[in-house]
Automatic annotation (TrEMBL):
Residues 7-63 form the HTH lysR-type domain. Keywords: DNA-binding, Transcription, Transcription regulation. The gene is argP_2. The keyword Transcription applies. GO terms for molecular function: DNA binding; DNA-binding transcription factor activity. The keyword DNA-binding applies. Pfam families: HTH_1, LysR_substrate. This is HTH-type transcriptional regulator ArgP. Gene3D superfamilies: 3.40.190.290, Winged helix-like DNA-binding domain superfamily/Winged helix DNA-binding domain (1.10.10.10).
């Protein structure tokens, strides 16, 4: 790329559309141009920069250089939106943003964040997926923030900040507990009773059993309900027992609908908010809102190894 050369915004917008849609054809439809025109624009951008930005096979994906260019374009677009809102206060346009948040957080403490974000003219997309897929989205720039159990930054130019611990309790209905765990949560009981898991990627029970019994428990009966509400309802319907966020479990325990199978042995899961190290608005405000809400709702470590909620 020549020194001082300016990137063509039309070509950048076309390139970004291809990345977002993962298809030249779909990007062309979104931009109301032909696929050939979209291809030409991306090729001209690659020639201007002097680097390959996209790989076409087996699927359309940005290269490392393409990821950098896409993040640049998204930053510019966010800055322009923020500038227009500041210089024209009556402007009512919104900024579309995607954040990756685990399902249990969405079901418990994250909802107030969405209400606050609506006041900042944000059209929010919550992505709930496995970590590997989300990392790809982070690398491309599709997702602007990511709640994870990973304590270290997983994408260049991102930082990871601890926001607290999600506390899980192993629970069942009183009737299920009497039938399967009359003597408490035991290894024979676990090997016989059915556990309720979120999906096949859910490792919470494996971690909990390892900590509770000191051994790996690989083969135990299980049902899968890929929704926090459906998982909790399955437990309440006596289909099995399971690990539930304490924010959901405790009111039901107080009401007598659930019992804790391992009192005093809750599972603590550390959570970290991953975000751009240098955030334009409104991303900086969004990250601040997310982290503040998490720290109000999640368990916070205190000096001496104790935990305060």
């Amino acid at each position: 790329m020549k020194v001082g050369a300016m990137l063509n915004m039309v070509e950048l917008e076309t390139f970004a559309a291809v990345v977002e849609h993962r298809s030249f054809t779909q990007a062309a439809v979104a931009l109301n141009i032909s696929s050939a025109a979209a291809t030409r624009r991306v090729k001209r951008l690659e020639q201007s920069i002097g680097a390959l930005l996209l790989v076409r096979e087996p699927a359309v994906m940005p290269t490392k250089a393409g990821e950098e260019v896409f993040r640049h374009f998204m930053t510019v677009r966010l800055q322009e939106d923020d500038l227009l809102r500041r210089v024209t206060p009556g402007r009512a346009s919104t900024t579309a943003l995607a954040l990756a948040v685990n399902a249990d957080s969405v079901a418990t403490w994250f909802e107030p964040v969405t209400r606050e974000l609506a006041q900042h003219h944000v059209a929010l997309e919550i992505v709930v997926d496995d970590q590997d897929h989300t990392l790809e989205a982070l690398a491309r720039g599709d997702v602007k923030g990511f709640l994870s159990t990973q304590p270290e930054p997983v994408v260049d130019r991102f930082v990871a900040e601890a926001v607290g611990q999600m506390r899980y309790q192993c629970v069942a209905t009183p009737g299920f507990a009497r039938e399967h765990f009359a003597g408490g949560l035991t290894l024979p009981g676990v090997l016989e009773a059915t556990a309720i898991l979120f999906d096949r990627k859910d490792t919470l029970h494996d971690v909990f059993f390892g900590l509770h019994f000191g051994v790996t428990v690989g083969r135990y009966p299980r049902h899968y309900f890929p929704s926090p509400a459906a998982l909790l309802n399955a437990i309440l319907d006596d289909l099995g027992y399971g690990l539930v966020p304490a924010m959901q479990a405790e009111p039901l325990i107080r009401g007598g609908r659930l019992v804790a199978l391992a009192p005093g042995h809750d599972l603590m899961i550390d959570l970290y908010w991953h975000h751009w190290a240098q955030e334009p608005e409104p991303l900086a405000t969004i990250s601040a809102l997310v982290m503040a809400a998490a720290r109000r709702s999640l368990v916070q470590p205190v000096p001496g190894g104790e935990r305060a909620s």
